[in-house]
Amino acid sequence: MKKHMFLQKDSKDRRNLPIGIFDSGLGGLTVVKEVLNFLPHESVIYLGDTARLPYGNKSEDTVLRFTKEAISFFSSKDVKILLVACNTASSLALPKLDDDYNFPIYGVIDAGVEEASKVTRVNRVGVVGTKATIQSGIYEKKLRKSSSNMEVYSKACPLFVPLIEEGWMEDSIAYKVSEKYLKDFKKEKIDVLILGCTHYPLMKTVIKYAVGDNVALIDSARSFAKKIKEFLSEQNLSADTAQSNCEFYVTDEPRLFRERSSLFLEKDIDFVTKINLEDYK
Amino acid sequence: MKKHMFLQKDSKDRRNLPIGIFDSGLGGLTVVKEVLNFLPHESVIYLGDTARLPYGNKSEDTVLRFTKEAISFFSSKDVKILLVACNTASSLALPKLDDDYNFPIYGVIDAGVEEASKVTRVNRVGVVGTKATIQSGIYEKKLRKSSSNMEVYSKACPLFVPLIEEGWMEDSIAYKVSEKYLKDFKKEKIDVLILGCTHYPLMKTVIKYAVGDNVALIDSARSFAKKIKEFLSEQNLSADTAQSNCEFYVTDEPRLFRERSSLFLEKDIDFVTKINLEDYK
User: Which of A70, A127, A168, B105 could form a disulfide with A154 if both were Cys (CB 3.0 to 4.6 A apart)?
Assistant: First the structure.
């Protein structure tokens, strides 16, 4: 978890600032859902870079550039903390940030790693994610750091997101794709599988079928929100107002985002603002 | 086919300028291949917007903005003609361009429409493409214009590109996906199917299996290159030098592009330059 230096002296005034949540697209709404669940008094500013998604098959340089633009956007909005919900941005961009920002920046990886380390009994953990996330090796590195005798097995599953976007999460094709990607995990006798992409929990049923009922699936959104709750409380940064507010920003057409958001957020979004992230260099 | 006004008075000097070819990513290399095949003396400047691909699930406004930036890039390079290889950009952006440029701009749609109209005997044509291309209705409109009693059946096939990118073009999963998308074309008794996305010819075998051997598949890249050859000749714009040269530009990591280019171009690319299209507003 990348935590940047930030000005803490005015924490009292910062308490009721919104939490920023950044994702390449819609998947990060699962983190919004969990944050609102664990922290109902918090306000949220969400940004989905829908014009340039997906990030999962792009290079580190490009994902870093996009993420820096997103951070500039949140700097202009004055948030008290920024959560990077996107696994690819958390894997590729956060380790490369060396600037100090006015708010701490937390990626989604550590929450999943910590929970997986707690849950596994045999120290054999699987990770699924985008090509870029898996190739970065960040989950392996962090899992191995968490326990010296941890065995980690990773697999990029680039067809999962398109299947979910097509609404075929439980189609027989999804079962076949899942079986093809995940069959080796059975041989490796993992007992925990980290779903290292915000979309994947939507394919839980099918993934569970492929890896077997005895494998616990870790959905990082939930553990991420729990960790952020602890952090805000420790830092005396929890909101102390009953009013909360959500603002949504995207880089492509708001209508497309609104139409599909309920899949992740499980409630309707009324108002979405389109911005051009390239203006935030 | 969108053809813009351009300065023709110096056509003699313009002959040996390169042909510009624009695509959202790698698929447009199939057009490069056909252009080099039909026009071996021509030089080519290729641009793939790999940092922001795919275009096929994005809005008209966004695709128009990206395409205008690409045109600005080609303006800086001085090309004699610009070919938009990307079906989505041709469908969504070209009809909205109202500026005059220093070179004519041709989209890929008309070449496919013309060939399909010639080939069909029963005036029942199918079209497959990205969500954005199919929703634009451009193929339907143009096919119906080509013949008053033309029946057109369209289907967006968003999983085809991810399947190709995964290298599963002939996997049993590709057969199942293709069957699911294309089964209705059999009922409609089409005799021609336009492959309205530069990637789809790579799934020809599987698509043919789903629609039946009696359906002719139209791969626009070839007919596009043939049409451009005629146009250049008519306009006295054909290159008259034996030397030809290809330059490749991308917006994401050149290495990723080089590694995967042979799938489409069927030859290796030595040198690729990375640019930031957002600098060409």
Answer: A127
